[in-house]
Amino acid sequence: MILTKARIACLAGLLFALILCFPQSAPAQVIYGSLLGNITDPSGAAVANAQVTVTNTATGAKRETSADEMGRFNFPALPAGVYELEIKANGFRTYKQTGLEVTVNTVLRTDAKLEVGAITESVTVTATEAALKTEKSDVSTSIAAKQIQELPLPAYRNYQTLINLVPGATPAAFQNAVVDTPARALTTNVNGTNRNNNNTRVDGATNVFIWLPHHTVYVQPVESIETVNVTTGSMDAEQGMAGGAAITVSTKSGTNEFHGVGFWYHQNQRLKARHFFDRITRLPMANMNIFGGTLGGPIKKNKLFFFGSFERTTERSGQVGEYSVPPENVRRATLAL
Predict the structure, then answer these.
(1) Model confidence, pTM
(2) Could you tell me the fold of the domain covering 139-251?
(3) What is the DSSP letter of 270?
(4) Which SS3 state, helix, strand or coil, does residue 18 take?
């Protein structure tokens, strides 16, 4: 068979399509978190080959592994959420620890000390002391869903306002006119770098307005965000293309329980005060509404879930002031032209 240019191009396209069909290994850690630790006995010696299980308390999803000969275990690429840890080893009581919160782009270490006893007996730990961050060298700040939903959010309820709380960030501001800013996105400079050097990802996908790269093309509704991680130094290689801040937004997913929320925020000129030096007697129209809701729940318990979010913003504005026609000499000059 003679290979023409057209056939070569067709074969190359088919090969590329086949590559995309194969499962990809080593998912990017930036959209997940990790849980690891060491297992020891009362004397401090390592407990090898213990059976370790983590369970997502919201979805029931389980991951299992075995500790190595040094008593070490590791669960990489865990979706963000709250987990329960269970460790079983012959000759020791079953160890359980609850309330382990895993967030994106973080490594959570939890070491376990087993007690001698029957495996049918158990010890449950509900709280541990705060540990120093020794697993990663990056400088990052995590903003949880509770903070995003309960802290004041001016500027169209935009989560980017909270980047003001990150050390090294300048106050967030509109980048262009409000009507020309996609999704009312905000800008900030981090550690003195240009605003174009920030890189935002949503569930691992780059979120950038190509023609104006200092804009994010879409701003998620507040109620749909699980966590926001902002890395400002020594970031991982997979967070490349970010010279300022690498911002990772993780959205919510469904759980074994039905959850939903509805909201409607309204403001108008009657809720505002007139500027002290303003000579107008009445304020111009400034009517804005932000409304929507979320709904999530199980399709098949512990297996399949759904989550949806909707938000809409409507705004009407006007202008009131003192106006006059041009003076006569200006009108004559204009007509002469």
Answers:
(1) 0.76
(2) Ferric Hydroxamate Uptake Protein; Chain A, domain 1 (2.170.130)
(3) G
(4) helix
